[in-house]
């Protein structure tokens, strides 16, 4: 079992101090929702970079990279950081600059923050992302919040580290579109500020590997885990509503969610770091012929670029983990996502086709979408409407308090939408009146 203890258990005094701190912060930030209404827009509909940076400054007032983040076990935290990229303030501030720099894209319109936008839970809140020249890929942008805690990176786990991952969007033709790493280096190497910053951070000239390292260092400061639910887990029984409390019980029992999304005081991330086919791609794919096409394409071209292209720019994207392992059992399988801050990162699932958390519940309630590769942990759940509402309330309690305003806005927006339409709802399947594969 992968029950790594990620968080150290905290003493009650610490909990109440944190709670007090949060209340003070909340009162400082309760205008967040109002501010969001007038976000200035830049390229591709993302919030303007300068605006995003200012918001990030407010969100991150007290980051001290020399310390283990509050509540984490220091040994585990250090194990997440590669030896050649120890966290230093110089590296983090260089990575922050790069994260927002559109010069790293071929036409100067796209940065990491275009698709992982600070004002939108570090996603773009689009079904699939838009890169240079208005090109759309096949996958939904996950959040860059808490990615420091992942064991593999990308939805199919095709990248082993944040350092490695950060270089790939820069050269991906439909994302930032640079022909190669050198082109990215050339785009910034004459900038005296960057020259000095690379020297300070890594004692080297501007180079592509250090671009990846610096961005990864910055991402390690995006730890946002201070949610009402975390306080509840740490012993504050009143931190969440009674609906959310009921939802938490259902999450562990009747809903069976915990089998793939483990959550407990020592590992409250909500992922088993494994890959499962929960049937999302089965709605519109013929896996058999796709798998054959995928194997053929990978045989002809074994490069990393080819895998990138298949994963993002072709129908074979839906094969998920299979493209990485070629294991039959990985067909249509994706990594169980972290479900922290889930309220503010719609739409959901690897292809962004599931619009609200009520729709997510409808998908699970009917046992996912029947297909030959469906994970054995998936079955009809027979959850009532009240039970669905309770699990949704629980899911909305997983958002860091610093995003409380956006979380509330999402809750209201998603609720209103779910009252109008529930495209995935199928009570006949959920209550086994109809059986999968039965005509
Ligand atoms: C055009 C939109 C776009 C841009 C630009 C972009 N990303 Fe992404 N990002 C995505 C999409 C889509 C995925 C999911 C791809 C997949 O998993 O196959 C993703 C996945 C990720 C992940 C993996 C998260 C996880 O849960 O595994 C990280 C980390 C990440 N991006 C960081 C970055 C960084 C750093 C940059 C800038 C160098 C960047 N992204 C640029 C759209 C984008
Ligand atoms: C068999 C393992 C499994 C079970 C059981 C399971 N999940 Fe998931 N969950 C996953 C995987 C894998 C994904 C990603 C699927 C994809 O993107 O195609 C996911 C995605 C999600 C997402 C969307 C995340 C995002 O960022 O888009 C939510 C929310 C979620 N699950 C909640 C739940 C809840 C609530 C339950 C219980 C009713 C549950 N899950 C049961 C494995 C599971």
In short:
This protein folds into three domains: 31-219, Cytochrome c-like domain (Cytochrome Bc1 Complex, Chain D, domain 2); 228-279 and 335-430, Cytochrome c-like domain (Cytochrome Bc1 Complex, Chain D, domain 2), CATH 1.10.760; 281-331. It is built from 19 helices and two strands. It has helices at residues 12-29, 32-36, 49-59, 74-79, 89-99, 112-115, 162-171, 181-188, 192-202, 208-219, 228-233, 242-252, 287-300, 304-313, 322-325, 357-365, 385-396, 404-420, 427-430; strands at 275-276, 334-335.
Q: Approximately how much helix is present in the residues?
A: 40-55%
- Total number of strands: 2
Domain count: the total is: 3
Bound molecules: heme C
Q: Indicate the mean pLDDT.
A: 91
Radius of gyration: 22 Å
Could you walk me through the main structural features you see in this protein, from its secondary elements to its overall organization?
This protein is mostly helical and 439 residues long. It folds into 3 domains: 189 residues, Cytochrome c-like domain (Cytochrome Bc1 Complex, Chain D, domain 2); 148 residues, Cytochrome Bc1 Complex, Chain D, domain 2; 51 residues. Helix content is 42%, strand content 1%. The protein is built from 19 helices and 2 strands. It has a two-stranded antiparallel sheet with strand order 1-2. Helix 5 crosses helix 10, helix 7 packs across helix 10 and helix 16 crosses helix 17. It is globular and about 70 Å long.
């Amino acid at each position: 079992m992968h029950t790594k203890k990620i968080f150290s258990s905290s003493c009650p005094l610490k909990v109440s101090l944190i709670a007090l701190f949060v209340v003070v912060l909340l009162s400082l930030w309760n205008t967040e929702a109002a501010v969001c209404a007038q976000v200035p827009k830049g390229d591709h509909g993302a919030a303007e970079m300068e605006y995003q940076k200012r918001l990030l400054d407010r969100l991150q007032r007290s980051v001290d990279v020399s310390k283990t983040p509050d509540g984490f076990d220091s040994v585990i935290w250090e194990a997440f950081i590669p030896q050649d990229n120890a966290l230093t303030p110089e590296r983090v501030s260089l990575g922050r600059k790069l994260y927002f720099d559109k010069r790293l894209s071929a036409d100067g319109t796209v940065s990491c923050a275009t698709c992982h936008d600070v004002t939108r839970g570090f996603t773009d809140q689009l079904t699939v992302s838009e890169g240079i020249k208005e090109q759309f890929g096949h996958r939904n942008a996950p959040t860059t919040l808490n990615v420091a805690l992942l064991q593999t990176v990308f939805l199919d786990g095709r990248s082993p580290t944040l350092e490695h991952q950060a270089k790939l969007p820069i050269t991906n033709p439909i994302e930032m579109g640079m022909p190669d790493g050198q082109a990215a280096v050339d785009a910034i190497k004459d900038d005296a500020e960057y020259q000095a910053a690379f020297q300070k951070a890594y004692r080297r000239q501007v180079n592509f590997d250090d671009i990846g390292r610096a961005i990864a260092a910055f991402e390690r400061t995006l730890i946002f885990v201070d949610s009402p639910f975390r306080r509840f887990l740490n012993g504050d029984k009143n931190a969440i509503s009674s609906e959310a409390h009921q939802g938490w019980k259902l999450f562990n029992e009747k809903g069976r969610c915990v089998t793939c999304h483990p959550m407990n005081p020592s590992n409250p991330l909500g992922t088993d770091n494994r890959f499962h086919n929960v049937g999302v791609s089965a709605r519109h794919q013929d896996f058999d012929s796709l798998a054959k096409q995928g194997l053929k394409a990978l045989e002809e071209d074994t490069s990393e670029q080819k895998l990138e292209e298949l994963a993002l720019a072709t129908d074979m994207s839906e094969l998920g983990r299979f493209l990485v392992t070629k294991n039959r059992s990985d067909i249509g399988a994706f990594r169980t996502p972290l479900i922290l801050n889930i309220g503010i990162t719609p739409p959901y699932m690897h292809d962004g086709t599931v619009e609200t958390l009520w729709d997510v519940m409808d998908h699970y309630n009917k046992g996912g979408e029947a297909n030959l590769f469906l994970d054995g942990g998936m079955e009809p759940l027979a959850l009532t409407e009240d039970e669905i509402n309770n699990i949704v309330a629980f899911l909305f309690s997983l958002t860091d308090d610093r995003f409380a305003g956006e979380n509330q806005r999402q809750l209201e927006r998603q609720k209103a939408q779910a009252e109008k339409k529930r495209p995935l709802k199928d009570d006949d399947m959920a209550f086994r009146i109809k059986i999968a594969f039965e005509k």
